[in-house]
Fold this protein.
Amino acid sequence: MQIVVGLGNPGDRHRDSRHNLGFRCVDFMSRRWEIPFSERRAKAVLAIGRRHGRDVVLVKPRTFMNNSGEGISYLIDRFGVKPSDILIIYDDLELALGRIRLRTQGTGGTHNGMRSIISVLQTQEIPRLRVGIGHPPLGQETIPFVLGRFSEDESGSVSRSVSLAAEAVECILDENIDTAMNRFNSIQPEC
């Protein structure tokens, strides 16, 4: 079983924010793989199905970004999986817009959602897929930037990175994360 979690904040107010890029990625996978989000729980909304003979669970935590660890802990208890069976997808301002990067482990960096997960699970050995949103423009604070929406000029890059993230997850499901890292970590964003 592979659990794929897109991080974000629940609610219409946050729907199209940069910080909800993880939600956008799993929403795209749900449509592409025809696995609808049909199960609502207190800690998460789930889409449960199969892809290429493998059980897949797509997840959007309902715990807000800074408490993402609670939602991931729920998944481990519910499905009896290890942290290494869960792939976390989240926005990263340290990566250029349109760039993705897979890792099998590491710190949470500046991302409070990933920090929460590492703190609750007490391990850094959690696979993750970081999707670049770029740095805020000179003079703009970080929080308003990540909670803000993408500009119309950025929409093409965002769509490409969401599609690329889905392809990377498909590679993980069909092959393994090492193959996916070799294939996708070197892809540069289109300008």
Residues 2-184 form a domain with the Rossmann fold fold (CATH 3.40.50.1470).
